[in-house]
Design goal:
8-stranded mixed β-sheet; D-amino Acid Aminotransferase, Chain A, domain 2; 12 strands; 24% helix; 5 helices; 4-stranded antiparallel β-sheet; alpha+beta; D-amino Acid Aminotransferase, Chain A, domain 1
């Protein structure tokens, strides 16, 4: 198993780099993996020097021995997604939920829709398979309260700290009802796409 971060690179500059650094370093500590700041900084500098024009998806992978590898691909424009709602598969090790690891079986799906939106056994809406959920209701934007039950995204954290996003839980029943009544709008938020519209298949 490895840890990884998926970052947005615009014209040689990483978005939310400090958030990604803090998250992967915290995860490395949780899994007792070697993490050296010098190697992280060297990897970042190398990528920034090679890809200084255009917009890219950069995946930085941390191996248990502390070695960083990376993959870079152009990021095509995509402003809207489709999603279906599915229950979260029970997971033995909660760290898999709350850290970005290559063990992602609980997020696998057949891609009938672009995304899946997960909910837990209590009916709490959690997250999408590739990012957090943002719900607009009235003039405010909400996202589920973190209770060690999903991955805290870097874009989510940035918006909360900027005072633009409020933590509030939605039950599956309430969420579906408000969707059908057109009382809410749903968005995907992640560091790569930032904010994108999502149409939920009910």
């Amino acid at each position: 198993m490895q840890l990884f971060e998926t970052l947005r690179l615009d014209s040689g500059n990483f978005s939310r780099l400090t958030y990604h650094y803090d998250r992967i370093k915290h995860s490395a500590n949780q899994f007792q993996m070697t993490f050296e700041d010098e190697q992280w900084n060297k990897t970042i500098s190398e990528i920034e020097g090679l890809y200084f024009t255009g917009t890219y998806r950069v995946k930085i992978i941390l191996h248990p021995n502390g070695v960083f590898k990376y993959e870079v691909a152009e990021l095509p424009q995509k402003d809207s997604f489709t999603a279906k709602i599915v229950p979260l598969t029970p997971i033995q090790d909660k760290r898999v939920l709350t850290n970005k690891t290559t063990n992602r079986d609980h997020l696998a799906h057949n891609h009938e829709t672009d995304l899946i939106l997960l909910y837990d056994k209590s009916g709490k809406i959690l997250e999408f398979d590739i990012g957090n959920i943002m719900i607009k209701e009235g003039n405010y934007y909400y996202t589920p309260v973190y209770n060690e039950d999903f991955l805290k995204g870097c874009k989510r954290q940035e918006l909360i700290e900027e005072g633009k996003l409020i933590e509030k839980d939605y039950s599956l029943t309430d969420f579906k009802h408000k969707l059908r009544q057109n009382q809410i709008q749903v968005f995907l938020i992640n560091s790569l796409r930032e904010v994108a519209d999502v149409a939920i298949n009910l």
